[in-house]
Amino acid sequence: MKGSAGRPLRCVVAPPAPAPYREPLFRALHDRSDLELRVIYQSGRQPSWDVAAEWFAAEHAYPARHLPSWQRGRPGRTPIIWPRGLERALRSADPDCVVASEYGPASLRALWWCRRHGRAYVVFTECTPEIDAMLPAAQLRLHRWVARHADGVVAVSSAARARLLRFGVPAERITVALQSADLAAVRAASAGRDARRGGGPVVVLSVGRMVPDKNFSVLIEAFARAGVGAAEARLEIAGGGFLAPELGRLAERLAVAVRFHGHVAPAELPRLYAAADLYALVSTYEPFGVSLREAAAAGLPIICSRAAGAAGEVAIDGRNAVLVDPGNVEEVSAALTRLIGDGRLRRAMGAESRAIDTATDGHDVDAFAAAVLAAARRRGWPYRPRSTGRTSRRIRSTRAGRR
């Protein structure tokens, strides 16, 4: 749908920093004829994250801008970011709709700008009900207030949608658009893996930063309790972080066969998925779990934390996954024992992972675009009449009154 003068809807998305798994989504949105996309990153990178600087792309296949910012790091969590010049960047882009990420300072500033200029405001959120117990009461009230004042909300999972419904956000304003991921290379690298695999130990892969939420200590302990030797199974962990030395000592003390890869560049991850037999994610808090989409695209059976936002949509219990309580070491250990010891079950679940990957492919793009267009229509787009130029509607209205 195009507005007056036949032009597409101008949409600005304001994520915290460039993330590789968002690139396919933004490229696809840029290619649409009904949207004119511009991405304004609050920062070019997040130094407090335990990833290499090159993880944050500097060049993009769509119009993008990286703002300078002040940041306050939080160990293991996304830093608090104050982008400099956000309002000037929005004024320059003159969007019909702004999509802000979560509920931080930039989101509040975007809401203020949209209300001042009569533009649509959309929140993009990964947060599930799991986060509510972690938030101070005032911050939880802020989340609820912002969500209820948005013209639309894009939730990356059904669990995130359930949280918004609890907030009192009308169902018609919520759109589920599954978390995006760059999956083409993973699919290509993993094609025909079963035919290539010979003997050797079962490779259990887990990808994530070495921070408390990822719960790698429980995964290592569960592996030890499973009682499998190095000739039967090996655990591989890809990711850097401040817990790396501690986890290394734990694996050594428990005599667990673990290979720590450290930080792995996105271009190198597909080969790890292709070489694995089983994927494990046992995070205590995981808003979605992009790696679960990658594991499904690789055709891997999955052990998945019930706390993950993707549980039930990408990792489905009894189909391609075994869901576990991340705080229960014995439950995680039992799942490892079961899947390591049953090759036929792993192959059956791996086939289901590929089917789920096929069924969810492209869901993020169409749903995201539909949410943005619907929110803009609620705010009165396409505007009639609408003057050209970058001056706000409020200023144009004032000038008209002076005539």
What does it look like?
By secondary structure, the chain is an alpha/beta fold. The chain has 2 domains: 219 residues, Glycogen Phosphorylase B (Rossmann fold, 3-Layer(aba) Sandwich); 177 residues, Glycogen Phosphorylase B (Rossmann fold, 3-Layer(aba) Sandwich). The protein contains 15 helices and 15 strands. The chain has a 7-stranded parallel beta sheet with strand order 3-2-1-6-7-8-9, sandwiched between helices. Strands 12-11-10-13-14-15 form a 6-stranded parallel beta sheet, sandwiched between helices. It is globular. The two termini are 33 Å apart.
> What is the terminal-to-terminal distance?
33 Å
Task: Compute the number of helices.
Answer: 15
| Largest sheet data | 7 strands, parallel
Helical content stands at 25-40%
Main β-sheet, spatial strand arrangement? 3-2-1-6-7-8-9
What structural class do you assign from the helix and strand content? alpha/beta
Average pLDDT taken over every residue? 90
Q: CATH architecture of the largest domain, please? A: 3-Layer(aba) Sandwich
- Overall number of strands: 15
The CATH class label of the largest domain is: Alpha Beta
Residue share in β-strands: 15-25%
Brief synopsis:
The chain has helices at 23-31, 86-93, 105-117, 137-149, 158-167, 184-190, 193-196, 216-225, 244-254, 269-275, 290-297, 329-340, 343-360, 363-378, 393-402, and strands at 9-14, 35-41, 64-66, 69-74, 77-83, 97-101, 120-125, 152-155, 174-176, 202-207, 233-238, 258-262, 278-281, 302-305, 321-324.
Key terms:
single chain, about 400 residues, alpha/beta, Rossmann fold, seven-stranded parallel beta sheet, six-stranded parallel beta sheet, 15 helices, globular, disordered N terminus
